[in-house]
């Protein structure tokens, strides 16, 4: 945890405070106004605004290659495998970072310095990536994506840590949902805008790769917005912690020795996670050329259609999360999401129906799975091992997102996009098998706890809490909140 520096003449002057009976701190002068008081909602909303900007640049630039796929392949030029490797290089550092990223933020850097450092990584990575475009260098572009990946996922950890520090209870759930929506919206904005930027720059240069490099350079502006937001948010947070005399929140440390204690259902859940997400993110990254070829679309229309996956999720995820929170039945929703995503890929592979139909189905299914799958982990793993569990799930997910796109690139280069869709269908079939296996294990050995309705599960949890105290190693009591 970050240690506070000793007081000096350059430290901000914090007015003396006194506590009211309701524990709200009274601050004289402008510092006590609703926009400046750290306990007032308007000030918290101001902090939330910068929390959202903190991750916006990362999400906007992550899918820059996907929105410019045709131009990467034509202008650099590169094979589909080399193009897909741009996403793999982003994911490789995040096979390890979920294990150590939280530790670095909690123990070494502190949340404020950590956010600034990781914000600097995404800026540096995007600049190197853009420089690779300007110099027609695939190796330099891959290096930039690797550096960008070091910052991207860890910046999301910092963003969530800030949210948990400023909000609590039901409000925290809504804040997390809002942050996810803004992140997905950032990805959608990328698909709407970056192609137009390229088109406006292309007539000004002799080479397409130069226009591509400058397009990526302009996109890097959003990363600098995130970096500036990390600095501003750090100042706001430090002032609030000083006034409220609060310490930074430290998450549970990840312990590799806990891995052997995880039940089979955890590994099945991780299998569903990785085999599902490798059919969404790699598809989105490679969808532009596929949609153009199969449906005879222009670049911009293909980008708008691809961005719909994220746009639908931006609006649907908070709503679906609230519904699942109240209804329960998580496994049923996970199976439904995987099945309809499989159906969407089958429509894309074997029919010529209007592409908006399968894309919208995929967007809704993606939103449903994200809302239903991750909470299951809290129902399986004991509370003191949740940090380890989430870290392992993210590491496995990123390992899949590093390897599967390479396979996708090889398939497209050698066999075409229909076989790419069959490749995705294969992974979704594994996801369905893993979900059904988890369902059967839960039914036979756990009284269908993972798939209970929320009311029944809460009643059972409360009854267990009254019967025995919660000790280390006991399952986590779960509520629908």
From TrEMBL:
This is Lysosomal dipeptide transporter MFSD1. GO terms for cellular component: lysosomal membrane. InterPro entries: MFS (IPR011701), MFS_dom (IPR020846), MFS_trans_sf (IPR036259), MFSD1 (IPR052187). It holds the Pfam family MFS_1. Belongs to the major facilitator superfamily. Residues 44-446 form the Major facilitator superfamily (MFS) profile domain. It catalyses: L-arginyl-L-alpha-amino acid(out) = L-arginyl-L-alpha-amino acid(in); L-histidyl-L-alpha-amino acid(out) = L-histidyl-L-alpha-amino acid(in); L-aspartyl-L-lysine(out) = L-aspartyl-L-lysine(in); L-lysyl-glycine(out) = L-lysyl-glycine(in). The keyword Signal does not apply. Gene3D superfamilies: MFS general substrate transporter like domains (1.20.1250.20). Its main location: membrane. Keywords: Lysosome, Membrane, Transmembrane, Transmembrane helix, Transport. It is a multi-pass membrane protein. The chain crosses the membrane at residues 45-62, 83-105, 111-134, 146-167, 211-236, 264-284, 304-324, 331-350, 395-412, 418-441.
């Amino acid at each position: 945890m970050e240690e506070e520096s000793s007081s000096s003449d350059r430290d901000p002057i914090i007015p003396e405070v006194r506590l009211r009976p309701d524990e709200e701190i009274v601050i004289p002068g402008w510092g006590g106004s609703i926009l400046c008081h750290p306990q007032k909602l308007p000030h918290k909303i101001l902090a939330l605004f910068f929390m959202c900007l903190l991750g916006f640049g990362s999400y906007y630039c992550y899918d820059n290659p996907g929105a410019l796929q045709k131009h990467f392949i034509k202008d650099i030029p590169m094979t589909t495998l080399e193009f897909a490797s741009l996403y793999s290089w982003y994911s490789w550092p995040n096979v390890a970072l979920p294990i150590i990223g939280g530790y670095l933020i909690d123990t070494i850097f502190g949340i404020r310095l950590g956010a600034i450092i990781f914000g600097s990584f995404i800026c540096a990575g995007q600049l190197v990536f853009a420089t690779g475009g300007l110099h027609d260098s695939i190796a330099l572009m891959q290096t930039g994506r690797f550096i960008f990946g070091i910052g991207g996922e860890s910046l999301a950890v910092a963003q969530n840590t800030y949210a948990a520090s400023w909000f609590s209870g039901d409000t925290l759930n809504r804040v997390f949902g809002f942050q996810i929506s803004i992140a997905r919206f950032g990805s959608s904005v990328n698909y709407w805008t970056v192609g137009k930027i390229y088109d406006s720059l292309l007539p000004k240069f002799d080479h397409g790769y130069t226009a591509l490099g400058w397009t990526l350079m302009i996109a890097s502006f959003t990363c600098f917005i995130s970096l500036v937001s990390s600095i501003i948010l750090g100042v706001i947070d430090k002032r609030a912690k000083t006034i409220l005399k609060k310490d930074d929140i430290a998450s549970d440390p990840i312990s590799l020795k806990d891995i052997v204690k995880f039940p089979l259902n955890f590994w099945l859940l991780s299998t569903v996670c990785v085999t599902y997400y490798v059919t969404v993110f790699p598809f989105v990254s490679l969808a532009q050329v596929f949609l153009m070829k199969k449906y005879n679309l222009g670049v911009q229309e293909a980008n708008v259609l691809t961005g719909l996956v994220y746009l639908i999720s931006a609006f649907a995820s908070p709503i679906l999360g609230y519904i699942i929170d109240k209804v329960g039945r998580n496994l049923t929703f996970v199976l439904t999401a995987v099945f309809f995503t499989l159906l969407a890929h089958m429509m894309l592979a074997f029919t010529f129906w209007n592409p908006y139909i399968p894309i919208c189905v995929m967007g809704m299914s993606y939103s449903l799975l994200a809302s239903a799958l991750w909470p299951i982990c809290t129902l399986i793993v004991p509370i003191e091992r949740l940090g380890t569990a989430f870290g392992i799930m993210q590491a496995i997910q990123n390992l899949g997102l590093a390897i599967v796109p390479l396979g996708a690139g090889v398939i497209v280069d050698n066999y075409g996009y229909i076989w790419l869709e069959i490749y995705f269908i294969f992974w979704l079939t594994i996801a369905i098998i893993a979900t059904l296996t988890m369902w059967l294990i839960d039914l036979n050995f756990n009284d269908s706890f993972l798939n209970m309705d929320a009311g029944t599960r809460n009643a059972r949890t409360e009854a267990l809490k009254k019967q025995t105290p919660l000790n280390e190693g006991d399952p986590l009591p779960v509520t629908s909140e």
